[in-house]
Backbone:
């Protein structure tokens, strides 16, 4: 699944090894953890797929638990940032407990939100409940996340739909994000209109601005 | 007396297999010598199950031995001296799976079938194997189940259960491997089965992942439909009768739905722990067991993954929830399921471990998190073939028994409960919109409410379409419970319920709670007794509406909500123990009592609703320092509150339980028992029975099964009760053995009610230990 950038990686024994990450050779690459959250069926997996593989798969399956993607983003100044993207299941029963929790080094049980540098909170423009529930997701991030500077982005997906199917206007979404002081994007995973690349590009540069190099190490 | 472990029973003997030609399978002679054991023979005779098999041994075995060449491929060697040709194999399976009466398979039959399945069962028999091995065919043929599925299908979904929306969302994401035109017809069937199951058992309801399970079952049921026609004339009389009866009145094409439904029912309700899909505690426990077993059995790989930072239990979650159907290719996973139906959960563990073992080479090479993830995602789908997989599961290091799993589940439960308790006690410092939404999301039906009103032209629709601020203020206008709904809108503990109290809503009268619902024999009996006329419009459910017990409750609830009052939003009772049914019920009652008795409601009554703009979003703007300071104090406060919950008096609950018990004794036993008479005198009289509970003959059996149960706490009158039940129902029907674990829990609950606090916690714990059926 995770179609990952493998350039120059075989030489590195482990991304979790701090010596290698801060070592001179790898100086230009930083790592950031991004979580994709939102109600079920808003298109989280499709967003990730469009970004990673550049395609839209109509025969998607609903996510069970969580899946993982990884991609490098390069900046104009020659530096780059590797995004670890956790795509989570939106199902109501999963939200409650199970998949959010996993182990690090077999000892510490942490949840998926922990050590996340950024969160992409998605809703679907065809479903006004998914917009309302964004508050709940933001609340969850505050509850379970441990990085205070965490960057949150509100994304309204499925912007390609007919006007008749649309339940949330662009304005409404914008206003919603504005009230919460959060950046806002409207995207379409179906159309190849660059909206999703733009989203992650901006997110990456925002991460780079807000976090110091030391903070941008890999915590999967 | 018998050992039923894999490695010495009914198993392919590797050395012999190598001597003979490759496709041939045989049993160790040792295992089948047990057939000659007179006691077992007698048992089998009684059941009438093995007659045919024995016959076929004699007839075919001796004849064929002379004729058939030993090295002929595809032959199947049964016992030392018996070799079955392909024709004989077919004859044999036909006898066993299709012509025999549709009863639960015996242990010996399972053993034989297991050997067939390890070799790879032919498509043609798969459907029948699943039906028989899961116990579904027996359920379908029970007279009271004949119209069960179709009746439930006809029922309208007229209450706001969020499951219905989730099902609709996932339908089109199930058959990702099929082309669209092919899946269209399957999707309708899938919707029907899942929706009917939600109606049957709203406590378990629908959980993402179930769509893959039912999808797979449906596909198998359909794939062998064509072969069914030719063999249909062989199928049992009872089945034919049932079919022809239903065909006349209803759509013929939903037989596969009915079959898939019952297989699914048996999977979820009797092969798995009951809290597997209801609140997912069972899955979390299994996830932990899996991790431990992995560490124990493949330590070097586990160490490697740890070093890279990958937690395999994350992936195990997918494997466990979907029984490997999510990750394995279809043709492999159906074969794994063959074994799963025959042997139970241990197969999932074994196959998962074997998968990791096969991938070990690849995984050890991986140095990065992403590489590991990629291998785990793609390798099973592309490179696994069934034979290697099954051979790997047979390695000694992957031997695991169902009883081991049962034991580990008991062990792990406590730890998981502790973790979940911590989850409940999270920081809750936000005001305004956040707080309201968080509060509302506690109510199970809340998210379904909007979707339900969406399609109606009413004032309610407008409320939901308003912008967030207005919506919040007007929500209470339409936040009304309907006592006809099977789930109470105000029941915030709903997700925590255990389906022991499943019941039928037959009218607006107080609901009947049928504790041993899963015993179909008993069930029909009770329904008949209760309300014979309305038997056909029954909806099974949990239906307990506490909200209308005190008229002040709803009124106060709404007033307090509009004032964003702490007494409501910060109510300590909302933090109930997530894995304890009893505690959550206590919290719910206490919550309603507190709200109903809220002092000083008058001063809020006419106050205007505070605009959410003024109270909005403290959370997002608070500096981290402030957050931390608030958290620490708030946490202390909440912990205190939590302790208080524990101390709340048990009065209400106990009274209820005693009334229950009284009712049980009065209703079911015409001749009063001395002990219950005493009980009765010590209690205040109840005006109207709220529950009606019955004990069944089945409890006797279950007691024998759970022999290690604590005998001391079992009170005398319970034993008397059982004896009496035995006379009432002398039928010892094997069909119900699979469900017996549920009865055990129900029994435990009753015992708990009787003994009160004395050792009660033990019984409560047992509620969760619902083992797999004794296969």
Residues:
């Amino acid at each position: 699944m995770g179609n990952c950038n493998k350039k120059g990686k075989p030489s590195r024994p482990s991304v979790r090894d701090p010596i290698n990450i801060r070592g001179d050779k790898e100086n230009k690459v930083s790592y950031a953890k991004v979580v994709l959250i939102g109600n079920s069926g808003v298109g989280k997996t499709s967003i990730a797929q469009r970004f990673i593989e550049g395609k839209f798969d109509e025969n998607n399956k609903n996510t069970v638990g969580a899946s993982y993607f990884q991609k490098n983003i390069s900046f104009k100044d020659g530096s780059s940032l590797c995004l670890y993207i956790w795509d989570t299941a939106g199902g109501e029963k999963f939200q409650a407990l199970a998949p959010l929790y996993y182990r690090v080094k077999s000892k510490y049980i942490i949840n998926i939100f922990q050590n996340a540098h950024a969160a992409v909170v998605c809703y679907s423009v065809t479903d006004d409940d998914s917009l309302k529930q964004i508050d709940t997701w933001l609340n969850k991030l505050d509850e379970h996340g441990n990085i205070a500077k965490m960057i949150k982005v509100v994304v309204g997906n499925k912007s390609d739909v007919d006007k008749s199917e649309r339940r949330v206007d662009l304005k409404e979404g914008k206003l919603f994000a504005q009230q919460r002081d959060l950046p806002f994007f409207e995207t379409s995973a179906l159309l190849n209109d660059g909206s999703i690349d733009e989203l992650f590009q901006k997110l990456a540069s925002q991460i780079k601005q807000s976090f110091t190099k030391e903070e941008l190490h890999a915590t999967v | 007396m018998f050992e039923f472990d894999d490695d010495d029973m009914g198993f392919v003997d590797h050395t012999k297999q190598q001597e003979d030609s490759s496709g041939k399978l045989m049993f160790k002679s040792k295992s089948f010598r047990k057939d000659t054991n007179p006691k077992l023979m007698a048992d089998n005779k009684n059941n009438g199950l093995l007659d045919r098999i024995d016959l076929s041994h004699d007839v075919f075995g001796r004849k064929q031995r002379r004729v058939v060449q030993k090295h002929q491929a595809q032959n199947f060697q049964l016992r030392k001296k018996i070799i079955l040709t392909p024709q004989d194999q077919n004859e044999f399976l036909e006898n066993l799976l299709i012509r025999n009466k549709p009863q639960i398979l015996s242990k010996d039959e399972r053993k034989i079938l297991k050997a067939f399945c390890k070799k790879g069962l032919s498509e043609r028999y798969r459907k029948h194997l699943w039906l028989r091995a899961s116990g579904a065919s027996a359920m379908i043929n029970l007279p009271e189940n004949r119209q069960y599925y179709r009746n439930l299908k006809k029922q309208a979904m007229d209450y706001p259960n969020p499951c219905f929306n989730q099902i609709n969302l996932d339908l089109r994401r199930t058959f990702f491997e099929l082309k669209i035109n092919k899946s269209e017809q399957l999707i309708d069937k899938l919707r029907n089965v899942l929706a009917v199951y939600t109606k049957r058992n709203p406590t378990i309801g629908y959980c993402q992942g179930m769509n893959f399970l039912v999808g797979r079952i449906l596909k198998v049921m359909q794939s062998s439909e064509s072969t069914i026609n030719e063999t249909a004339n062989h199928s049992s009389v009872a089945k034919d009768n049932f079919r022809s009866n239903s065909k006349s009145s209803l759509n013929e094409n939903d037989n596969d739905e009915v079959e898939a439904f019952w297989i699914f029912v048996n999977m979820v309700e009797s092969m798995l722990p009951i809290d597997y899909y209801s609140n997912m505690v069972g899955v979390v426990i299994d996830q932990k067991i899996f991790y431990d077993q992995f560490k124990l059995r493949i330590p070097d790989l586990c160490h490697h993954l740890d070093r890279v930072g990958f937690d395999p239990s994350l992936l195990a979650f997918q494997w466990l929830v979907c029984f490997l159907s999510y990750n394995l290719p279809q043709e492999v996973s159906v074969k794994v399921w063959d074994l799963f139906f025959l042997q139970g959960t241990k197969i999932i563990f074994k196959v998962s471990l074997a998968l990791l073992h096969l991938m070990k080479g690849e995984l050890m090479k991986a140095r990065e998190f992403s590489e590991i993830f990629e291998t785990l995602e793609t390798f099973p789908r592309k490179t696994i073939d069934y034979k290697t997989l099954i051979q790997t599961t047979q390695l000694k290091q992957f031997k695991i028994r169902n009883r081991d799993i049962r034991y580990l589940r008991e062990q792990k439960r406590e730890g998981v409960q502790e973790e979940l308790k911590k989850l409940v006690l999270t920081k809750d410092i936000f005001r305004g919109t956040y707080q309201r939404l968080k509060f509302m999301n506690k109510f199970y039906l809340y998210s379904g409410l909007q979707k339900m009103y969406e399609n109606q032209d009413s004032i309610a629709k407008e409320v939901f379409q308003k912008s967030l601020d207005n919506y919040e203020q007007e929500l209470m206008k339409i936040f009304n419970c309907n006592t006809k709904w099977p789930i109470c809108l105000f029941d915030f503990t709903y997700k925590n319920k255990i389906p022991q109290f499943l019941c039928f809503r037959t009218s607006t009268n107080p609901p009947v709670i049928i504790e041993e619902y899963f015993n179909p024999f008993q069930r029909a009996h009770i329904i008949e007794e209760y309300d014979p006329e309305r038997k056909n419009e029954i909806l099974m459910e949990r239906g307990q509406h506490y909200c209308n017990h005190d008229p002040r409750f709803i009124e106060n609830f709404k007033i307090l909500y509009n004032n964003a009052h702490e007494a409501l939003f910060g109510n300590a009772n909302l933090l109930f123990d997530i894995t304890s049914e009893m505690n959550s019920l206590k919290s719910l009652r206490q919550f309603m009592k507190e709200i109903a008795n809220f002092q000083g409601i008058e001063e809020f009554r006419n106050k205007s609703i505070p605009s959410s703009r003024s109270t909005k979003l403290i959370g997002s703007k608070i500096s981290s320092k402030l957050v931390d300071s608030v958290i620490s104090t708030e946490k202390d406060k909440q912990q205190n509150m939590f302790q208080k919950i524990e101390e709340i008096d048990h009065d209400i609950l106990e009274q209820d339980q005693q009334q229950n018990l009284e009712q049980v004794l009065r209703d079911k036993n015409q001749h009063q028992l001395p002990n219950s008479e005493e009980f009765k005198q010590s209690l205040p009289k109840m005006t109207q029975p709220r529950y009606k509970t019955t004990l069944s003959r089945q409890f006797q059996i279950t007691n024998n099964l759970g022999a290690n149960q604590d005998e001391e706490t079992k009170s005398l009158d319970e034993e008397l009760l059982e004896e009496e039940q035995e006379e009432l129902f002398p039928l010892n029907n094997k069909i119900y053995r699979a469900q017996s674990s549920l009865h055990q829990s129900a029994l435990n609950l009753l015992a708990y009610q009787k003994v009160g606090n004395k050792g009660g916690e033990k019984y409560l714990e047992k509620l969760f230990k619902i083992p797999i059926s004794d296969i």
User: Anything to note?
Assistant: Chain A touches chain B through 64 residues (CB under 8 Å). The domain at 29-216 of chain A is CATH 3.40.50.300 (Rossmann fold). The two ends of chain A are 17 Å apart (CA to CA).
